[in-house]
Amino acid sequence: MPIIEVFIAKLIAMSLAFVAQYILWKKYASFQTWLTQNQIGVVSALVVLTRIIPFILVFVILKEEPRGDVPFFYYKASHAVHLDLVYRDFWSFHAPIFSYIIALPLLIVDHASSIVALMMVGELICVWLTYKHYQTVSSEAYAKLLHYLMLPAPIIICLLGGQEDIWLWGFALGALMIWKKSNSDFRMGLMFALSLLCLKVTVAFFLFPLFFLIKDKFKFILSMAVVGIPSLALLYYLVGWDFLMLIKHTEDPYSPNLFSVLRPLIGASVNITKMNWLGLGLFLPLATWIGFSVRNKSFVQAFPLLFILTYGLMQLFLPSAMAYYMFIYLVVIVFELWQHKDGKFLFVLLLLNFLLIVEPFVYVYHNNPVFDSFTKLSNAGYALEYLLQWAFVITLIYVLRVCYLRLKALPEVAQK
């Protein structure tokens, strides 16, 4: 299907989703009793309508090929399913186990769409765990679950982009749940160590600010070392230094981020890899400082807010960050920052969804433009893309400000 037709289909789906969002928000109180009494049926129906039917329509009936990162994922999974050795026999910028995880559905159906199905299952598990976590602290958790399932951006990002980024939150939430149940920093550390082996190096970014809220820091570090040192030794034994490709920074700029919108002021003569390291050197100390400044806050309450701030700042400061990175923490924004009666923030959520769907298309449609001078903005299409980037960056900054103020407003807990 031509890209413009795909985009029109996205716009139609987005419009229908926005109408459904508004109706649910306005009428939720009237139907709350019925929706709550039929929770399993309602949630199942939404999953079928927003995930399963679109999957069947796109990949079974229309026989579309998966897009986004999925072709590269399929390349890796096709090697991993034959037990080829990651980093030595095939390329991967993910953690060592990731390629073997995404190879599992190929044992059932050897097609790239199988990986998309796995991503959708992974997303639903993360969303359900998020709901179960917030169900214990918020009476609005069920309403937020319904709203999230009807947001158009996660559907499109997962279905057409095959993104796994929400798994970072799923593993982090799993670590938090383990801590809540066992009160063990060691066990929580084991879960984070596992996520570093299964996902990508960006998992480590969150550990810097989180470290200051951890009570028994020695046991946490010990658990990471217990898993990490033998794993690194085994990787070195098997593939030598080739495993370092998992920390390789991209040499291509993406959008939207602070670098992309400020690029006309910076100019063309820029090394993107060095700018990525500069962005890392800016956002990671800032996120770490925020973690240090709230070290006396409730661990459970501060955890999701720090998660949003860490990856939101990453998205702002890294030149290689793209819009879809918000999939890492969008579900946390919905459950943590939005009060269901707050129509203003619902508008912000829908605006983010609009930008997450429209900006990437305009960016790709105009061949990934780099605005290294203001003269390029004389082109109407380029000017539209530049305005969309600014809209996204400003909206993201607003969300991060709300998150930061919420974090600072948390009451301090007594230190034992």
Would you spell out the secondary-structure blueprint of this structure?
Layout: H1 3-37, H2 39-61, H3 70-80, H4 98-101, H5 112-135, H6 141-150, H7 152-159, H8 166-182, H9 185-198, H10 203-210, H11 217-239, H12 258-266, H13 272-293, H14 299-317, H15 330-337, H16 343-365, H17 380-409
Task: Please give a handful of descriptors for the protein shown.
single chain, 416 residues, mainly alpha
Q: What is the residue-mean pLDDT, rounded to a whole number?
A: 94
Shape: globular
Compute the CA-based radius of gyration. Answer: 21 Å
| Total DSSP E strands | 0
Percentage of residues in DSSP E strands: under 5%
Number of helices: 17
Low-confidence parts, pLDDT < 50 over ≥5 residues? none
Instruction: List the helices and strands in order.
Output: HHHHHHHHHHHHHHHHH
Largest sheet: none
Q: What portion of residues is helical?
A: 55-70%
Task: Count up the domains.
Answer: 1
Distance between the termini: 62 Å
Given the helix and strand composition, which structural class is it? mainly alpha
Task: Characterise the protein shown here.
This protein has helices at 3-37, 39-61, 70-80, 98-101, 112-135, 141-150, 152-159, 166-182, 185-198, 203-210, 217-239, 258-266, 272-293, 299-317, 330-337, 343-365, 380-409. The protein starts with a helix and ends in a 7-residue tail after the last helix. With 416 residues, it is mainly alpha-helical. The protein has 17 helices and no strands. It has one domain (3-409). α8 (166-182) packs antiparallel against α14, α14 packs across α15 and α14 (299-317) runs antiparallel to α17 (380-409).
